[in-house]
Design brief:
695 residues, alpha/beta, Immunoglobulin-like, 8-stranded antiparallel beta sheet, 21% strand, disordered N terminus, hydrolase, glycosidase
């Protein structure tokens, strides 16, 4: 059922767009549909089991502002229905009075055949309270990006009937892994209802990732258990709500990857399933001749410069946040949502501001993927207050430092650059995000669903995507990866050991950097996709996480757990603000840098590629936690080196917390005196807690 959206809180023309979709009442159901150009709108009711058998047709009447409305006892819980919309012909209109269309506000959907769906009336009120939200502060957040199916399909502790499902994700066995790892939020690849593109179907492939939405309110039924699918959309929604409830009970937030930038209707000539038949001119970006302006690379772009499209996005977010209970959203190709009527990006676009200012979304985490493929589409650092962003500059610099620079040095004896750029990313990317937004605007990641896994990043120089049906043309060509001497699988013990240390260096950097870390599911124990860096079309063991591990994978998992634990325990690693050289900033980390001799870094050392060893000294300025100070030693060269720990006032000693050198974490907590020398055998990290002198 549609929830009431008070006009005083709606930023797009007040009450005109309130209560779209179906609302149930004493006189049956009221359906409200917006179409600014339609000449007629009909509600079509179907038999519960034969979704081609029309049992009733009810005309809607215009009630002003482009809204069409009807109240009928034909609408009840479980009713299967569609829309028929007619309107004028013209270059930007594509009305077809015979087409059966999805209500954009439908809370439940059932498929009929490719490109055809029926909306279903459901009661979205939870059947029991969703429970208190974890409300994890952003500085304490560790995100775990996962796919509902991929995470649970092969988990031996999840009952087979729950494999690959929402219920499987909410199962105690899955949650135990997440809590033992220490992550605070799962970021789920799209769970809005979606379908596979015809091109993939003809190749025997599928849209596995789900970035092809057909409905922004209905959950994808393919991730529900067989029992819920059999029971219908109401049961599917309940399963999603229970998943959220179970994760919340374990202290884990749920963030949804949402795709509001385009839909599954693809380009002109693609499916006419919803927007295209309701009001093509209002919902999609077009030239005057009706051709689409595609800034997404997916055939169409939703036109959020129109109030109807922008309000629909906002209403969808409010629904998932308050009736399903999710804690945040990651916006796919977010610049598309911030493009105005002139198609240019504006960080103060009304929709972008409404998303972070709407009181119904208060406290939710908002994360932008800050690029699309349109003109001016790369906007990393360009979003406003209230937004965090995927930081591709961080990803690229960290990969370069530990992988492609090392590869270069093997061939040219010296890496191409010094440590300065890497240090900036380690300390929170202050050259990308303003002081007002601070380091928590940066969502740091080294891998994501799109691209190489962590293990493949250190095992392949080039992509291996032949199984995708595009002759290896798809997927990124520039990966900043390094195979360390052999392409793919090898039995060479030296290469394997070097790869393992490279993974530890990458994980260590990610989890010890200022900002919000995002770990990709399976990277904590080195999963592989056999060199495929664009596995969007494989719903198979290639993309399902394998929970049977070799000993080295258990060792890597132990490192990941230790690093997350240390991040939680040391606030100096997770500042909320950037420090200022002239004044104390609460909840910042005051940073000093030293070279391998324990001396202050000289200006020329920052850019000298022959010197890629530094010591990162971060001291917290706490508001709510005990004072804390850490020293992270970074060595970005394969040549062994001796490093002298700095002799500093107020520092009595250095407690060893973690090193990337051993195969399994050393938790002996050895204490070293200032001026002690540690030997690093090439490319390594070593973290210390700096112990204060007694007063």
């Amino acid at each position: 059922m549609a929830s009431s959206l008070p006009s005083e809180s709606a930023p797009f023309q007040g009450s005109v767009y309130d209560d779209l979709g179906v609302t149930l009442g004493p006189d049956g159901g009221t359906l409200r549909v917006w179409s600014g150009a339609a000449s007629s709108v009909e509600l079509v009711i179907f038999d519960d089991t034969d979704l081609d058998w029309i049992t009733a047709v009810v005309p809607l009447e215009p009630v002003g502002g482009g809204v069409w409305q009807a109240t009928t006892d034909e609408l009840a819980l479980g009713t299967r229905y569609a829309l028929r919309v007619d309107g004028p012909s013209g270059p930007r209109n594509t009305f077809n009075k015979e087409a059966l269309l999805i209500d954009p506000y439908a809370r439940g959907l059932v498929p009929v055949r490719r490109g055809q769906w029926r909306a279903v009336v459901v009661d979205s009120t939870p059947d029991e309270p969703l429970g208190p939200r974890p409300e994890t502060p952003l500085d304490r957040t560790v995100i775990y990006e996962a796919h509902v199916t991929g995470l649970t399909k092969r988990h031996p502790g999840v009952p087979p009937a729950l494999h690959g499902t929402y219920a499987g994700l909410g199962h105690p066995a899955t949650i135990e892994h997440l809590t033992a790892l220490g992550v605070t939020a799962v970021e789920l690849l799209p769970i809005h209802a979606f379908e596979t593109e015809p091109r993939l179907l003809t190749q025997g492939l599928t849209n596995y990732w789900g970035y092809n939405t057909v409905g922004f309110f209905a959950p994808h039924s393919g991730y529900a258990t067989a029992a819920s699918r059999e029971a219908g959309p109401q049961a599917v929604l309940r399963e999603v709500q229970q998943m959220v409830r179970s994760l919340h009970a374990a202290g884990i937030e749920v963030i949804l990857d949402v795709v509001y930038n385009h839909t599954a209707e693809l380009s002109i000539g693609g499916p006419r399933s919803s927007f295209r038949g309701i009001d093509n001119a209002a919902y999609y970006r077009q030239h005057d001749d009706g051709s689409y302006i595609d800034v997404t690379g997916c055939g169409n772009s939703v036109d959020t410069s129109t109030d109807a499209a922008a309000r629909l996005v906002l209403d969808s977010l409010v629904y998932w946040a308050n009736e399903v209970g999710v804690d945040g959203f990651r916006f796919d190709l977010a610049p598309t949502l911030g493009r105005g009527a002139d198609h240019a990006f504006d960080p103060d676009h009304p929709l972008l501001r409404a998303i972070v200012d709407d009181p119904r979304l208060a406290g939710r985490k908002m994360i932008a993927e800050p690029w699309d493929v349109g003109l001016g589409g790369w906007q990393t650092g360009g979003f406003g207050a209230g937004w965090s962003e995927w930081n591709d500059r961080y990803r690229d610099r960290v990969r370069n430092f530990w992988l492609s620079d090392v590869d270069y040095a093997r061939r040219a004896s010296t890496p191409p650059v010094g440590a300065g750029g890497f240090a900036t990313r380690l300390a929170g990317s202050s050259n990308t995000f303003s002081a007002e937004r601070g380091p928590l605007a940066s969502v740091n990641f080294i891998t994501a669903h799109d691209g190489f896994t962590l293990r493949d990043l250190v095992s392949y120089d080039v992509k291996h995507n032949m199984g995708n049906g595009e002759q290896n043309r798809d997927g990124a060509d520039t990966n900043r990866s390094f195979n360390h001497g052999a392409e793919g699988p090898t039995d060479d013990p030296g290469i394997l050991a070097t790869r393992r240390k490279a993974m530890r260096n990458l994980l260590g950097t990610l989890l010890l950097s200022a900002g919000v870390p995002m770990l990709t599911a399976g990277d904590e124990f080195g999963r592989t996709q056999r060199g495929n860096n664009n596995a969007y079309c494989h719903d198979s063991p290639l993309t399902w996480i394998d929970w049977q591990h070799a000993p080295w994978q258990d060792d890597l998992l132990a490192h990941a757990r230790r690093l997350v634990q240390l991040r939680h325990e040391n606030p100096a690693l997770r500042p909320r603000r950037f420090a200022h050289e002239a004044r104390t900033v609460p909840s910042a980390s005051v940073i000093d840098w030293y070279d391998e001799h324990g001396e202050t870094m000289s200006p020329e050392r920052w850019t000298n590629p022959a010197h890629r060893t530094l010591q990162y000294d971060a001291e917290s300025t706490p508001e709510n936690e005990a004072p804390n100070r850490i020293l992270l030693v970074v060595h970005g060269n394969e040549r062994p080196i001796d490093v002298t720990l700095p002799r500093l006032d107020r520092v009595a000693g250095y407690t060893s917390l973690w090193s990337s050198v051993p195969e399994r974490p050393d938790e002996s907590l050895a204490v070293l005196a200032p001026g002690s020398v540690i030997a690093l055998p090439g490319t390594a990290l070593h973290l210390f807690r700096m112990e204060p002198c007694s007063e």
